[in-house]
Design goal:
By secondary structure, the chain is α+β, with helices and mostly antiparallel strands. The protein contains 4 helices and 4 strands.
């Protein structure tokens, strides 16, 4: 009986020790920022529940978890939008890198690359010639129509509706053609810069990898 009592007492002590160790292991310390300073404690006050904090082991001081600050719906929406924009930028950068690799693989020499850009430049230049000619013709036609209307007014005669409508139509066509020509001029100006950048990237991608 004494032996049985001793074993029971030993088992009971071991059980209490295990429970005590588990309680100790479950105890945490919390650290958070409050008023610009770091505050730590074994309990988390209500005003710090939504704050960013670090949870530490009370026994070892080892960090157990890091909790981010709770966001309002507006802040969460802004964070989601920032994440979406970052993903778009990352995808655009990946697409650019794919294009550059394809460029390096498509052209054997720099001359081939310049020739490809040369074809684009020729097309834009031809379009510019057509636009300049169209603008000149429309301007000349509009000036002629305005002169007719001016002569009628000088003679004290009304400008009939057909002539007025024609003037407005020619003016709209002229503005439209001028807008097209401005776009072509911008594209032509960017082609030179695009070519130099493409050549620079081409050499960088074609260069042997340094060991």
């Amino acid at each position: 009986m004494k032996m049985h009592g001793l074993l029971a007492a030993t088992a009971l002590c071991a059980l209490f020790a295990t429970a005590s160790a588990q309680d100790e292991a479950e105890k945490k310390l919390y650290c958070w920022n409050e008023g610009g300073r770091k505050v730590c404690g074994d309990a988390l006050p209500a005003n710090a529940v939504d704050a960013a904090r670090t949870e530490l082991s009370a026994r070892s001081g080892r960090p157990l978890a890091r909790m981010g600050e709770q966001l309002t719906p507006e802040e969460r929406a802004a964070a989601d939008e920032a994440e979406r924009q970052a993903a778009i930028a990352a995808n655009a950068e990946a697409a650019r890198q794919r294009r550059e690799r394809a460029m390096a693989e498509s052209y054997e020499t720099e001359e081939d690359l310049r020739a490809a850009f040369g074809d684009r430049i020729v097309l834009v230049d031809e379009g510019l010639k057509t636009s300049r000619l169209g603008v000149a013709n429309l301007r000349q036609s509009l000036v002629s129509l305005l002169r007719q209307a001016n002569d009628l007014e000088l003679r004290g005669e009304p400008v009939h509706k057909a002539l007025a409508d024609n003037i407005q139509s020619q003016h709209r066509d002229l503005l439209r053609q001028q807008a097209i020509m401005r776009q072509q001029l911008e594209e032509r100006a960017s082609l030179d810069a695009d070519l130099e950048y493409a050549v620079e990237r081409y050499h960088a991608l074609k260069a042997p990898t340094r060991r």
